[in-house]
Specification:
seven-stranded parallel sheet; six-stranded parallel sheet
């Protein structure tokens, strides 16, 4: 195929692995030299898509800012395209301008985040996006979700005629850790991700505060809960063991992960988006040979226990302590299981299958 294609992402490319994987897939499906990605920042991107950066202070105003960004983006890339790929609900407003500034034969929507109403309800902000998604989702030729649970739920909720394609959050640049597996003294735990209330990271602090041995914990990331977590660490008496790294680029992140012993993933059980989470962290930790420590969120529990990737805590602290001792005492075995999991789920193995699946839906 040699046709013009457009990816729309109201955000930055540098640290968004899911968008980078989408660009990689589409560049394999289409051989055109006229592929474009319109985004707020293309810093760090070196792929085959031409980057069109659109941003201004006006684009950062809640709700109205998304409309302004979409308008500016549509004008900047106006023209005819074979495929327009909308990434995430924050880019959905761009659909208003399909048919006005932008013509598209095929439209693809990556429903990365779940914003559907459930028993926990939703805020007016989330409700706004849900209604927008409901308005446009049937206009897409193809819908993509991050795991099977989400795909089935989205199909049922919106009454779609076709189950969305599943493209998991595989690690797109698998760099295997060849360091001989061993546990540092003291052990080093690493958490990387947003510091937000739904991660309930304070519960992990409760857990490690009760360990009967010294440890180090590196927190990579930032967010609104950072100050609270810092004060909470002081309250528990573990502040001296916690290092607050802040946000880092993806290249720096992998260099830091390889120096740790355990990767931490934590989510609460409130709302569909967290109950059906599909974190790319589990693939990143596994590629570094790190056993993982997770909350008992169901999808994480299933993956970790099935593949023997590490420790699930939250259902019973006592069980968590025993499992952690087991992993420390047989660290080489669990590190190997993590690497095996990463190899089986590597992007290089999964990519050809996903390319074929995508071609079926957009041909």
């Amino acid at each position: 195929m040699n046709r013009r294609n457009l990816v729309v992402h109201n955000g930055s490319l540098e640290n968004d692995g899911r968008v980078l994987r989408s660009l990689d897939l589409l560049s394999a499906v289409y051989s055109s030299d006229d592929n474009i990605v319109v985004c707020k920042s293309g810093k760090g991107y070196s792929g085959s898509f031409t980057v069109c950066e659109v941003d201004s202070l006006l684009c950062n105003i809640p709700l109205i800012g998304n409309f302004i960004w979409s308008l500016f983006a549509a004008v900047a890339v106006r023209g005819r395209y074979n495929t327009v790929y909308i990434h995430d609900y924050l880019s959905l407003i761009f659909m208003i301008f399909i048919g006005v500034f932008v013509k598209a034969k095929v439209k693809i929507y990556d429903a990365h985040e779940i914003i559907l109403k459930d028993e926990s309800g939703y805020s007016n902000y989330k409700g706004y996006w849900r209604n927008l998604e409901k308005r446009y989702i049937e206009d897409f030729n193809c819908v993509i979700c991050a795991n099977a649970e989400r795909a089935l739920y989205v199909e049922d909720y919106y009454g779609l005629k076709v189950i969305p394609i599943v493209i998991p959050n595989f690690l797109e640049a698998f760099v295997e850790n060849t360091t001989a597996p061993h546990v540092s003294v003291p052990p080093v735990f690493v958490y990387q991700g947003a510091l937000t209330k739904d991660r309930e990271l304070h519960r992990f602090f409760d857990f490690i505060a009760k360990l009967d041995f010294e440890f180090k914990l590196k927190i990579i990331g930032a967010g609104p809960e950072e100050f609270y977590l810092q004060r909470y660490a002081e309250k528990l008496g573990i502040a001296a063991s916690v290092e607050w790294v802040g946000r880092v680029s993806r290249s720096v992140l992998y260099d830091m992960l390889v120096q740790a012993d355990f990767g931490v993933i934590y989510y609460d059980h409130k709302g569909l988006n967290t109950r059906m989470c599909a974190p790319n962290k589990i693939f990143e930790y596994a590629a570094m040979g790190l056993p993982v420590i997770t909350s008992s969120q169901q999808s994480l529990f299933n993956v970790v226990t099935k593949n023997k990737l590490g420790v699930v805590i939250g259902r019973s602290e006592e069980v968590g302590f025993k499992e952690l001792d087991c992993v420390i005492n047989d660290y080489e075995y669990f590190s190997k299981k993590s690497l095996d999991f990463a190899r089986v789920n590597s992007w290089s193995l999964r990519r050809p299958v996903l390319i074929d699946e995508l071609k079926k839906h957009i041909s």
